[in-house]
Prior knowledge:
Layout (H helix, E strand, L loop, with lengths): L2 E3 H8 L3 H9 L6 E3 L2 E5 L3 E2 L2 E2 L3 H7 L5 H9 L8
Antiparallel strand pairs: 1-3, 2-3, 4-5
Amino acid sequence: MDTFETAKVCELLGVARESIRMQVNRHQLLALPQGGHEVFPAFQFKDGAILRRIPEVLGTLDTDSPFTALLFLLSRNGGLRA
């Protein structure tokens, strides 16, 4: 699975680190802990934006575990296809 570092996500979305942090805290963007920092699964971005349904799905999931959220997003759930 391809991932982006925080700096790349900031560049991609044209926002500051604090904005990224707020989106992660609000369960609008998925960040995974990795070796003392965070990485962001690349599949949640397209054309310089967060995929439209990612914040909705993450906000609906009843978990604080980023790995549980990742497993759900990677599952074959036809209802998530836009």
